[in-house]
């Protein structure tokens, strides 16, 4: 009986999907605008309960879409982007290690990436902003990996006005220019604030888009990653001046950087609306990992009250800010705690675009959750391999409500709580729901009448989306000591109460699952830092591909 019912259920769902996909042609396929913030903290958006940095556009979209509150990413940039574009767990690609460095001879393995699938479906594909998946040869760069166009940078960061990135190797600083358009350096754009520049470019792509084709656009912001040492945080002074209530000068600049990200979303929604593309668009917003409140590339972001930072497998490192907004979603204005992993976007967006997931690599780790998102159906995702790093021996796994952490990154330096540090001595401003209602995104959504919410309803969603630490017993576990830590995340989202000794059979089962996953691990790809050959001064002071391609067709003209 149960079996019959579930067959009926599956048949019913696939019937709905088949009907909705039938008869689609290029122009009916949804436009996809996927926006990635860099190193944005869990607690740095209004919809997660913070009163410090108003994010009215982000909040308007989140409340009118679906807040994805159990959305897991990798703990730093390169692996997250590898997982997103391949749909595969990074440890199966040799990409589970640290992010790529400038002049490092490493690249994303030659898997067919998400934008290549979208091109095959007739989409125009754009990447604006950060790549961070290798550039030693031209054929490793975005326009050779499925993007028709790229406007942005190849390494992990640069400065926000002059687009220079400085790396210290062998006691020497190497500085190179980073901004490129389809491979060519674009010096003439220098001086414009990066978040505005990438937003304006995105708005132009939308405004000039040939709407007989659908658009697949990834906007991978530099904001709010730290820039060069000496001047890690940068924002326009007039924006910084809006945050006089933030006493700490660094946190104040950070707040302005987040406000610029928020404006970006407003401008993009407005451009999609003016081009009459919005009613057939899907907008996703995520952070690539948690904020590094302290440590290298610290940006004064906050993952409060979550534990850990970027570079850890605690929730503060891997549970990211995320929402999806689209008029194509039927059940919206809700907080989803269904597990979702960064790899899931691959089959999910492919399905949303009318692609046949049977055509995808069966080795894909991503799970198609499109119908769960659209109709609020039970999610097919029950577990997530957070990572296995065979060098640090740090691994993490989610299994239903459970989370197991083995070993540690960074010798355990970042396993504590940091989010509150940057929140001290700061006057909170009251949460202003009218500002959300009146934001550009709020107005556009309202005007186009996608059953928008009232201000009162915002508050209840916000309450649901705010993490509350409810662990009664504190039972600390520091994996740096060699302990294995087990947490019940729904009741203990702040990872304060280790349950390993109370649930030994769960620990055994999850360790066994990790051992099984370990069999599919590919050792981390190796590649030295080849600064002799990639010294920016050899390339007109730019960070440039420096190795010959095996195939001459991959040279940029
Ligand atoms: C961790 O500790 C070892 C041994 O003390 C040291 O060699 C290594 O550099 C440390 N790593 C980090 C990331 O601190
Ligand atoms: C809230 O935002 C609105 C703009 O929508 C503004 O007019 C109002 O002054 C703000 N209220 C407070 C208390 O800041």
Detailed description of the structure:
By secondary structure, the protein is of the alpha/beta class. It has one domain (29-305, 313-381, 416-467): Alkaline Phosphatase, subunit A. Helices cover 27% and strands 15% of the residues. It has 14 helices and 18 strands. Strands 9-8-5-4-10-1-11-12-2-13 form a ten-stranded mixed sheet, with helices on both faces. Strands 15-16-17-18 form a four-stranded antiparallel sheet, with helices on one face. A two-stranded parallel sheet has the order 3-14. A hairpin with a 2-residue loop joins strand 8 (180-181) and strand 9. The longest helix is centred in the middle third of the chain and has 26 residues, at 249-274. It starts with a helix and ends in a 39-residue tail after the last helix. The structure holds 2-acetamido-2-deoxy-beta-D-glucopyranose (2 copies). One 2-acetamido-2-deoxy-beta-D-glucopyranose (NAG) is lined by residues 430, 432, 434-435, 438. Belongs to the sulfatase family. Its cofactor is Ca(2+). One of its GO terms (molecular function) is sulfuric ester hydrolase activity. The modification 3-oxoalanine (Ser) is found at residue 77.
């Amino acid at each position: 009986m149960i079996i019959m019912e579930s067959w009926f259920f599956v048949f019913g769902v696939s019937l709905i999907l088949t009907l909705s996909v039938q008869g689609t042609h290029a122009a009916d396929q949804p436009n996809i605008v996927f926006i990635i913030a860099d190193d944005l903290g869990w607690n740095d958006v209004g919809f997660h309960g913070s009163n410090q940095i108003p994010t009215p556009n982000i909040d308007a979209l989140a409340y009118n879409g679906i807040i994805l509150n159990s959305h897991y990413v990798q703990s730093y940039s390169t692996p997250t982007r590898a997982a997103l574009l391949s749909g595969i767990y990074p440890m199966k690609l040799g990409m589970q290690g640290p992010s790529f460095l400038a002049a490092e001879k490493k690249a994303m393995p030659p898997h067919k990436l998400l934008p290549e699938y979208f091109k095959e479906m007739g989409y125009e594909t754009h990447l604006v902003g950060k790549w961070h998946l290798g550039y030693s040869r031209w054929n490793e760069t975005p326009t050779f990996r499925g993007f028709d166009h790229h406007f942005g940078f190849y390494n992990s960061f640069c400065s926000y006005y002059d687009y220079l990135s400085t790396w210290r190797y062998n006691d020497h600083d190497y500085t190179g220019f980073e901004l490129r358009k389809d491979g060519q350096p674009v010096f003439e754009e220098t001086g414009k604030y990066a978040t505005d520049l990438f937003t304006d470019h995105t708005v132009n792509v939308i405004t000039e888009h040939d709407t007989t084709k659908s658009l697949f656009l990834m906007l991978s912001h530099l904001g709010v990653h730290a820039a060069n040492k000496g001047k890690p945080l940068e924002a326009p002074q007039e924006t910084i001046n809006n945050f006089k209530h933030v006493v700490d000068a660094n946190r104040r600049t950070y707040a302005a950087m987040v406000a610029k990200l928020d404006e970006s979303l407003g401008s993009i929604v407005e451009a999609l609306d003016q081009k009459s593309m919005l009613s057939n668009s899907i907008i996703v917003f995520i952070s690539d990992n948690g904020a590094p409140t302290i440590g290298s590339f610290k940006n004064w972001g906050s993952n409060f009250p979550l534990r850990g930072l970027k570079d850890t497998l605690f929730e503060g490192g891997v549970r990211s800010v995320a929402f999806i907004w689209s008029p194509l979603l039927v059940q919206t204005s809700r907080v989803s705690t269904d597990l979702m992993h960064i790899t899931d976007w691959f089959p999910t967006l492919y399905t949303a675009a009318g692609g046949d997931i049977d055509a995808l690599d069966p080795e894909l780790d991503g799970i198609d959750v499109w119908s769960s998102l659209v109709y609020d159906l039970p999610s097919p995702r029950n577990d997530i391999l957070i990572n296995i790093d065979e060098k640090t021996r740090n691994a993490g796994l989610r299994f239903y409500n459970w989370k197991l952490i083995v070993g540690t990154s960074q010798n355990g330096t970042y396993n504590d709580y940091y989010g509150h540090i940057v929140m001290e001595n700061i006057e909170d401003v009251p949460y202003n729901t009218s500002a959300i209602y009146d934001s550009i995104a709020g107005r556009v959504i309202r005007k186009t009448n996608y059953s928008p919410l009232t201000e009162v309803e915002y508050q209840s969603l916000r309450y649901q989306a705010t993490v509350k630490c409810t662990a009664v017993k504190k039972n600390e576990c520091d994996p740096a000591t060699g302990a294995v830590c087990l947490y019940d995340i729904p009741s203990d989202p702040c990872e304060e109460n280790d349950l390993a000794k109370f649930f030994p059979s769960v620990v055994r089962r999850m360790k066994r699952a990790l051992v099984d996953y370990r069999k599919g691990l590919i050792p981390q790809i190796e590649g030295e830092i080849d600064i002799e050959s990639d010294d920016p001064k050899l390339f007109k002071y730019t960070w440039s591909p420096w190795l010959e391609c095996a195939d001459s067709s991959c040279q940029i003209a």
